[in-house]
Amino acid sequence: MSTASTTRTHTFSWEDPAPILQASKTMSGMEYLRAVLAGELPAPPVAALIDMRITEADEGRVVFTAEPAEYHYNPLGTVHGGIICTLLDSSLGCAVQTLLPAGTSYTTLELKVNYVRPVTSKSGTLYSEGKVIHMGGRIATAEARLTDASGKLYAHATTTCIVLRP
């Protein structure tokens, strides 16, 4: 069998992340995410790698979307759990980010993901909606759900983030 007839390629490009890192230090989390959403700032490189995009950003709530593709597959013929986890982690963390003032950042301390059904390229557009549960001075928690256009649940997650104040 010829591999030339079965070989597929996927190419992506991204913008220099230095300007977005600088902008993130001078804007509130909500201002920053709305600038990315409006196309005023480029998305971070990981968004291009996975082909995900932020589609909604409100205080305490963020939605990312992605189209599952063959290049996301694991050896079992389904989307790799790491891709699903990245979508969930992105919406969780960015939901927290919407509530942060300028100069304040965060990082994930703990992430718990529950996979409830397999994702394939036939699943259609996936929506990862993250919502803040608690926003404290140093600790924030959030929850997220990964669904398709009809609302079918594929995975859900919770996170604990540490708020890094200057």
From TrEMBL:
GO terms under cellular component: cytoplasm; membrane
Organism: Reticulibacter mediterranei
Subcellular compartments: Cell projection, Ruffle membrane; Cytoplasm; Membrane
NCBIfam families reported in the protein's UniProt record: unchar_dom_1
Catalytic activity: decanoyl-CoA + H2O = decanoate + CoA + H(+); dodecanoyl-CoA + H2O = dodecanoate + CoA + H(+); (5Z,8Z,11Z,14Z)-eicosatetraenoyl-CoA + H2O = (5Z,8Z,11Z,14Z)-eicosatetraenoate + CoA + H(+); octanoyl-CoA + H2O = octanoate + CoA + H(+)
Protein name, per record: Acyl-coenzyme A thioesterase THEM4
Top-level class of the enzyme under EC nomenclature: hydrolase
EC number from the UniProt entry: 3.1.2.2
Pfam annotation, one family: 4HBT
Membrane topology (UniProt): Peripheral membrane protein
Gene3D superfamilies linked to this entry: Hotdog Thioesterase
Highest taxon, organism lineage: Bacteria
Thioesterase domain residues: 77-153
Single GO biological process annotation from the record: fatty acid metabolic process
Keywords, ordered alphabetically: Apoptosis, Cell membrane, Cell projection, Cytoplasm, Fatty acid metabolism, Hydrolase, Lipid metabolism, Membrane, Transit peptide
